[in-house]
Amino acid sequence: MTRDDIMTASVLMTDTIFPDTSLEQSVFKENGIDFELSPSHDAATLSELGRDVDALLVVYAQVGADVIDNLNHCKVIVRAGIGYNNVDLEAASRKGIVVANVPDYCQDEVADHTFGIFLALARNICHLNEQVRHGTWNANDGKSAPRLRGKTFGLLGCGAIGQQVAKRAMAFGLNVVGHDPYSSAEALSRQNIHKIDDLNEFLDEVDYLSLHLPLNDQTAHIIDKSALGRMKESALIINTSRGGLIEEDDLYNALIENRIAGAAMDVLEREPPHGAPALSRLDNVIITPHTAFLSQDSVSELRRKASQEVARTLHSGTPAHPVN
């Protein structure tokens, strides 16, 4: 008789940003799985409480090798979100633990937010609103806004969210191009996205650049001084993906030196920042506090799908969305 024959499966939720864990508990109860929320997400606590559990459900906690090496029975680690750079994939793979994420939620929310902050930046909406709030009514401040129709909107990363952004861009008469080594020209063409294989050529061409990439060793600081130097001085950059994709000091310098026209971001390399970031003090920058994924519906969808992914893997041995 094995341990699995005599013990109920168990899951440890490493951390949460949600007001309670009732939704998670409901899913696990339906599936006969014991649930515990860790009182702290430091490595020592997670190592101790995770020693004998069958699964980890992770929100923002760092789950590194120091935690994973102490997981004696864990079969799956599920990241409640799209990104998974807070989980050490190599350490998990060495232990034979599958890591999974939830890539198929909040696509509409992120695409809407992407295009919303892009429009606010392109039309100078936040600056004009601030002027009126301070008693200045000057329509001439709006004359610098470009006409969008006919301009080139570039997607750096053409996955599900990027394709949703493309649909919104096309509705405004923008020509959409994409750079993505993992998507074929034929597949993107079916979405009316013209693929540009060479990254430098892509950066040369775009009027507006929207980032939709995972953060990893290959993509970290993919937008740096060199990349910014290739772009048009009138170009705008939008990032609702991961803050580490942009070298923020290089972006700041490009903005104050008028080598780039503006930036709109929902993510920063350090979250939360220490006080107001330097970029936020520029009139041609919009920053929101990592809220693109949020809506009245998306959070409950995420929590349910992440919990179901844990249950599915413990019962069948195979998650729907493995990443390692």
TrEMBL record:
UniProt superkingdom: Bacteria
Keywords per UniProt: NAD, Oxidoreductase
Domain D-isomer specific 2-hydroxyacid dehydrogenase NAD-binding residues, every copy: 116-292
PROSITE patterns given in the database record: D_2_HYDROXYACID_DH_3
Matches recorded under Pfam families: 2-Hacid_dh, 2-Hacid_dh_C
InterPro entries reported for this sequence: CtBP (IPR043322), D-2-hydroxyacid_DH (IPR050857), D-isomer_2_OHA_DH_cat_dom (IPR006139), D-isomer_DH_CS (IPR029753), D-isomer_DH_NAD-bd (IPR006140), NAD(P)-bd_dom_sf (IPR036291)
Sample GO molecular function, one term: oxidoreductase activity, acting on the CH-OH group of donors, NAD or NADP as acceptor
Xref: Gene3D superfamilies: NAD(P)-binding Rossmann-like Domain
Coiled coil regions, renumbered to chain: none
Annotated D-isomer specific 2-hydroxyacid dehydrogenase catalytic domain residues: 12-324
Alphabetical list of PANTHER family matching this protein: D-ISOMER SPECIFIC 2-HYDROXYACID DEHYDROGENASE FAMILY PROTEIN (AFU_ORTHOLOGUE AFUA_6G10090) (PTHR42789)
Family listed: Belongs to the D-isomer specific 2-hydroxyacid dehydrogenase family.
The protein's name in its UniProt record: C-terminal binding protein
Annotated source species: Halomonas urumqiensis
